[in-house]
Structures are given as structure tokens and as C-alpha cells.
Amino acid sequence: MRKVQKNNQNNQNPKAQQRAKLTFRMNVLFFSIFILFSTLIFRLGYLQIVKGEEYVLEVKSTEEVRVNTSVPRGRIYDRYGRILVDNQPENAITYTKMPTTKQKEMLDIAIELAKLIEQPTNRVTQRDKLDFWILLKNEEALAKVTDEERAEYRAQNEELEEKQINAEMDRRIRERITDEELAQLTDFDLEVLAIYREMMSGYNLSPQIIKSEGVTDDEFARVSERLADLPGVNTTTDWKRVRLTPFSLLGRTTVPSKGIPRNKLDFYLARDYSRNDRVGESYFEAQYEEILQGEKSVVKNITNKKGQVVEMQTTYPGEPGKDLVTTLDMELQAEAERLVEKYLLELKALGSSSLLDRAFFVMMDPNTGELLSIVGKKIEKDEETGESYIIDYSYGAFTTAYEVGSSIKAATVLMGYSEDVINIGSTLIDEPIKLLSTEPKSSIFNRGSRISMTDLKALERSSNSYMFKIALGIGGTGYSYNMGLRLREDTLQKMRNGYSQFGLGVPTGIDLPGEFAGYQGIMDTPGKILDLAIGQFDTYTPLQLAQYISTVANGGYRVQPRMLKEIRKPSTDGEVLGPLVQEVEPKILNRISNTDAEIEHVKKGLRQVYIGSQGSAARSFRDAPYTAAGKTGTAEVVYYGPQTDKYRTNTTTLTHVGFAPYDNPQIAYAVVIPWVTTDFSRSLIQNNELAREIVDYYFELQQKYEQNGMKDNLTTQKVLPPFSEDRLDEDEAHTTATEE
């Protein structure tokens, strides 16, 4: 019986053990569920309490972008308020791409737009056509590269990433598209492509101009009526830049079809420009781009979590560009241009003038650096017809340089003072300078005798010999007949440093891009130091000449020349210039190392040039109704101009510098007429006559302005109509060669 009882107990143990295990497992399961629910509740609490605000902001995400609202660029005026560059409103069609916009949707919109407007296709490239053909005929395009070819290339180039492999396949596809297949694109397809490429070039949420040049009223109306069916498309007002004078230094802007120049793309994009924004491309428009451009509006785009724009809020309405008042007097400029052209053609008609093709005149205020007139005229020839015509070449006044001759002798005399070679009133002998193994160098008026001459007389008669001896003195030697020339090693640099104090051979600092400092000659023989002293070695720009004579006129201060006079807010009524924002102050670059007495003494010599019995410009200026002083120049030079087949031809350049009135200078001026003649027997004074006529006109204008109550320094100034009847639209500016 005991044995049977033991067996029953053994049979019951497995069941008990099974129940115990089941209970344990249930407890583990319930505990795990408890942990999971606790973690979930904790996570939900963390998301709601700790991160809730952050995620709410993400759901209601905002993006702040600058939107091109085509604010007008600032106007440009002359010093008396005459409009020089204006804006003209014109119709425009734009497209704004949304973050969720699909490529197919954009193509459909482009197709619909092509039915409503005529889009020029001249900007469509070969690459554009290839890409568009692939887009339209995707299956045919993909079939040009087989799966086997793709797999083989991938196997041979295992190190390449997938995008690199795809790029190679895309290249092969484009390479295999035939001309016949591209010819399948119809004229309508090309119009669609022209629209589509503009749509694709824009950024998300930033309006892209599809067409603004030549949008007709009918096109504008048709698109406006269909805006509800064309998501992202809008009709608006754009602004065309209009230049009301042919004066090229005002510069030009790009047109929307060109947009930002490629070489400056990163620079402008980093400053919130759009790719098709107008930007200043040359000279004044480029120099003051940031002031003229204005401020775009800032729009906050409120998007939902799908990236869809649900609301747009303008946080900054934008602001038109500021207006700029230039230092120019356009009435004076127009007359100076007429006279420069007149004398250029007169000299061209004299004969022996095959090299002559240009002439320059610059006038500035010697006290402030304000450029009143800057003229350049150049004769061009039409390659097809062979006919000659004259272009504006005003930029050549600071981008080209020439040997200017005796005009710089005032600087040479002042350098002689500062280097203790001569003193005020020093007398030297004017005589031919004969150095060992060289031909004699002499003054034009004295080919063989010895004439005792003071510094003032040397300026009046334009003595070369006097200047030669100053150069020799700077080099540490005197003169004796047929001497071998040994100069101090620093002589050349010392003289160039001396001239640079006046602005000769160094940048003037003009507030325009592209200035040229001039060319420094190579001193292969010591005797050329004599040529440097009379302006027949290094080259200087016409603007450098004007800055140099301004430095003498104002008592020794080299002032930076500039074209900007004032910055103003846009006019509110179109009748009076806007409020003054800033008046540009004169900038003194340096003072020459001469005493006031030395400068005044040299000015007396320059006065004698105009009124002395032997003054080189007395014939032109002795009877002037105002007091003035100056210096003439005739440089015998070797030609290295645009006619390469005439290189090394000996020719003559005429120059002239001056200032007036003598006691209280208001103006300083320079004339440069390069390569006038190859006939050295001619005695030409057109440089002096040109200077006289323009200076006469300047003083006549001052009387006229005073009688009419015209002033250039008023806080409030009336807007005056343009002086010229010329008109040059921005698109026309890109088809003319006058600014190249």
C-alpha cells in the first residue's frame, strides 16, 4: 500500500510544476506590459511636456525669404538735378515655384503659358534642347543605354558611387541623341522650353521673371485672365533702365534675360540677389550698385507639415534704390564733347594724321575733386562700309595713358626745390645737352646757343634744358659737354616718387572701376632720365594730368577725383529731389613736399605761360576775360597704338593743363590729343585753343546759372528734364559698342 501511495505523489508533481511555471510566465508578461506602458506614458509625457512646443513649431514651420518685387533702381542726376538715368515701368510675367511643385506640373504650366505669350527662344542652348528631348521622350532616351551596358559599366567601376554612374549614363544618352531626333522639337516645343528653362532657374518661393521685355498688353491681359488656372504664375510691373544721355561713364545694367554676370554670380547670390536681377555692369552703375539697387521686400511663407504654403506675410515692404547726384554739369559736358569732336576732326583733316584717332578733356574742381566734365572721343571705322564714325570714349580718360610732354614741367621744378637741386629764382643755362655717344637734346626755341634762364622763364618758354639739369642734379651730377653719365642708383625711383605725389604714374582713386596707372618706361640707357623730366618716358592718363594740375592749383593737396556728389532718398513727387542722405566729402590723398612759397612761385610761372611775352599759350589765353594759368605740352613719341602695322612710327602728342581763376581756382583742366601728326614741321596749337574755348564756356555758364538762380548746393533741389534728347534703353545698351 505504501508503494502505491508513493507513485501517486510522483504523478501529481509535474502538474504542480507546470502550474508554477505558468504563473511565473504570466507575472513576467504582466510586468513587461507594465514596463512598456510605463515607457510609452513617459515618452508621451516627454513629447508633450518637454518637446511639445518644439514640435508645434515644426508643424507650423515658417520660412523667411527675400522676394524679388522689382523695386525701381535709384535715379541718377547731374549736379543741377537734370535726370541722366531713369526707370520706365513695363509689364512682366513671373513664376514662383513651390517646394511641393513637381516637374510635370511645371511642364504643364509652361505649355499653357506658351499658348498665351510669344517667348523668344534665342537663349535656348543645345544642352537645353537635349535635356528637354529627354524629358519629353523619356522612354526613348532610356532605351539608348541598355541594362547590360549599365551593368557592365558598374562592374568595371565598382569604386564609383551610384550618382556618378548615372551621370555617365546621362552623358551617353545625350551623346546618342541625333540631330534628326532634336529636329523633332517644333517651334512651339522650343517656346515651351524657353519658358520652362526660366521656371527651372528660380528658387523655391522666389518669383522668377519669365518675360519682361516686350510683353504686349494683349499677352498681359490673357495671362491675367488665366491666373487661377496657372498656379505660381503672376502678372506684375517690372522696371526698364533708361539712360537719357550717351555718356558712357554712367554705365549700364544687365537685363533680366542676362541677369547676374557669371563671374559675379556667387558674390551677388550671397547678398540675396536673384539670378535674373538687374545689376550694375559697368562704371557708375557698377560702382554704386548697392546704393542704386534698393531693398527687396521680405516675405514670411507659412507652411504646413507637407511643405505647402498656407499663408504669406510681408514683414518688410521693400524700398526703392536711393537716387545719386553726380558731380557732372551735363550742359558743360555736352559743349565740351562738341568741341573735342570738332578739334579732333579738324586735326584729322590736316594730313599726316593717319595715327590720330582720339582726344580727351577733363575738368574738375581742384578743391573738392568733383569731376565737372570728362570727355573722350574716338574715331572708329565700320569694317563693312569703311566709313568713319565717332564714339564716346570718356572711359579712356582713366583707362589709357600717354607720354604727355612738357605739361608736367611744373612738377619737375617743384621736385627740384624739394630735392634741393634748385631754389626759388634759381638761374640755369639753357643749352643743348650733349652726353657721351648720344645726340644733343635741347629746347625747341634754342638749338645751339646758351641762354641764362630763371625757373619762371623756364616754365614760360618751356625750357627742356632747365628740366634736364634738374634731373641731373637729382642724380647727383652737374652738366659738362660730352660727359659720360653716371647717376645715383635711386635717381629713377626718386623722380617717380616725386611725380607720384602729384598723382602722375599712380592711380588717382577715381570712384569708377578699371583705372589704369600708366606704363613705366624701361631705363635701358641713363640718358632716358632726361626724357622722364620732360614727360617723354613714362605714360600718364588724362585724369592724372587733371589731378596733377589740381594739386598745384589748390596749394599742394592731391585730392581724389570723384563722380558722386550726393546720395538722396527717392523723390516722392517727381518734382523735387528726395531728402539728402549724404553729401560726399572731399578726400585728400596726400600733400606734396613743397612749401607754400615754392608752390606759389611755380604758379606765377604758369601764369606767365598764359600772359608772358614768350608764353607758350599766350596766343590763346592772353586776352581771356578771366585770370588763368597753365602749361602746354608737345611730346615727340614713338607710336604703339591700335594700328600694329604702324608700330615704331615717330609722331607727336599735344597736351595742355591749366586752372582758373588764378587767385582762387574753381576749375582745373587737362587736354590730351595723342598721335596728332607725323609731320614735325607743323606748329599746332589746337590743344590750347580747345582748352580756351571750354574754359570760356564754363564761365559763361556760371553767369547764366547765377542769373537763373541755379545752384548745386541746395538742400531741396528741383528735378530738371534731361539736357539731352538722346535715349538709350537697357536692351539697346547691350547692342552698342560704345561701352566695350
Automatic annotation (TrEMBL):
Query: One GO cellular component from the entry?
Result: plasma membrane
List all membrane-crossing ranges. 28-46
Asked if the Swiss-Prot or TrEMBL record annotates the protein with the keyword Transmembrane, the reply is yes
Q: Which GO terms describe its molecular function?
A: penicillin binding; peptidoglycan L,D-transpeptidase activity
State if Transcription regulation is listed as a keyword.
no
Instruction: Kindly list any coiled-coil regions of this protein.
Output: 136-170
Q: Which organism is it from?
A: Metasolibacillus meyeri
**Classification via Pfam families:** PBP_dimer, Transpeptidase
**What lineage is on file?**
Bacteria, Bacillati, Bacillota, Bacilli, Bacillales
Acidic residues: bias regions:
727-740
Q: Which SUPFAM superfamilies match?
A: beta-lactamase/transpeptidase-like, Penicillin binding protein dimerisation domain
- Designated name of the protein: Penicillin-binding protein 2
